[in-house]
Amino acid sequence: MKPAPFDYLRPATKVEALQLLDTHRDGDAKILAGGQSLVPMMNFRMAQPSVLIDINRLSELAFVEERTDCIAIGALTRHNDVMRHPLVRKHLSLLAMAYENVAHHTIRNRGTIGGNVAHADAASEVPVVLTALDAEFVIESKKATRNVSAEDFFLGVFTTALEADELLVEIRVARPDPRAGSAFEEVSLRKGDFAIVSVAAEVVANEGTIELARIAIGGVADRAERASTAEAILAGAPLVGKTVQDAVSAQIDAIEFLDAPGISADYRREAARALLERNIIAAAARSEGTQA
Ligand SMILES: Cc1cc2nc3c(=O)[nH]c(=O)nc-3n(C[C@H](O)[C@H](O)[C@H](O)COP(=O)(O)OP(=O)(O)OC[C@H]3O[C@@H](n4cnc5c(N)ncnc54)[C@H](O)[C@@H]3O)c2cc1C
Question: Does pLDDT of 22 surpass 80?
């Protein structure tokens, strides 16, 4: 199928893009980034914007930078550039791990981190990591700039805190504790597919005690969710199998798993249980230096 007719605008700067968003704020304008989600939706007529604002010339939004207190990633940074960036591999290994599961090489060459999170697919891997790591989203309009936490950014399936005249410009992630270990794993039908269930875990373990656990689950609700029940049980607890099993069971009991076409609630529950256990143990072992 072909998309419905639309006007095409191609600003050269962020200021120009914000002006165009402001001008079209009452219409149904859409930003075009990598086009890897928006263009298929337009082709299927699930999205019919009357105006497309193509931000691909805004090179000022394509960067990965080390700041005093965080790693900042520009919204227009391509997936592959984020995944391979030395700062991401050094400080945000959880994000690099998750990216191994995002789509395929050619899609990652074009798709952007900003487009991925603005699209807010509940099965997407990147929001799971950004939720686990308490990322901050910098959002600009012609009139104001605001910072939104991951918890407040993702509101539901294909729904975020972004308003019609707003552009996501940057994502900030505080540098994790250098002693932290990370693990990301998912269950999907085929490699590169969206996740049926995914789990991101970052754990700081020290001489057999879990000091801190930051965990998020994807695919089981309308957005990525923090595993706060498990996190609370794990913090300060001894790093033994029974602690992890108890924390995971309590977390699983706190989630309402629903049947979906081709995937039963029972399947998703047991997949989530297995991934939570494995990832918490792997992240803790990496923190202790007993696993690569
Ligand atoms: C075959 C296939 C498999 C895929 N598999 C996966 C997968 O396994 N996991 C996964 O996570 N993703 C997957 N994707 C999606 C891919 O990650 C997309 O690149 C991503 O979801 C959208 O990024 P984009 O830059 O292409 O955004 P676009 O498609 O250009 O835009 C997506 C949405 O975000 C909005 N938007 C874009 N940038 C901004 C911005 N800076 N500010 C505000 N709004 C903005 C657009 O208006 C649009 O609504 C897959 C895609 C395909 C085609």
Answer: yes
| Probe target for ligand 1 pocket from 119, 157, 185, 189, with the most ligand atoms within 8 Å of CB | 119
Kindly list the domain boundaries of the chain, sorted by start residue. 7-54, 59-174, 181-288
- Mean pLDDT over 48-71 rounds to 97
Cβ–ligand 1 contact at 31 (below 6 Å) = yes
pTM beyond 0.85, yes or no: yes
Ligand 1 centre distance from Cα of residue 32 (Å): 9
Return the CATH number of the domain spanning residue range 7-54: 3.30.43.10
What architecture is the 181-288 domain classified under in CATH?
2-Layer Sandwich (3.30)
Task: Provide the CATH number for the domain formed by 59-174 in this structure.
Answer: 3.30.465.10
Q: How far apart are CA 209 and CA 287, in angstroms?
A: 11
Query: Does the C-beta of 198 come closer than 6 Å to ligand 1?
Result: no
Residue 177 C-alpha to ligand 1 middle, in angstroms?
A: 30
At 72, which amino acid appears? A
pLDDT reported for residue 279: 98
Confidence of residue 192 (pLDDT cuts 50, 70, 90): confident
* Contact call for residues 108 and 102 (beta carbons, < 8 A): yes
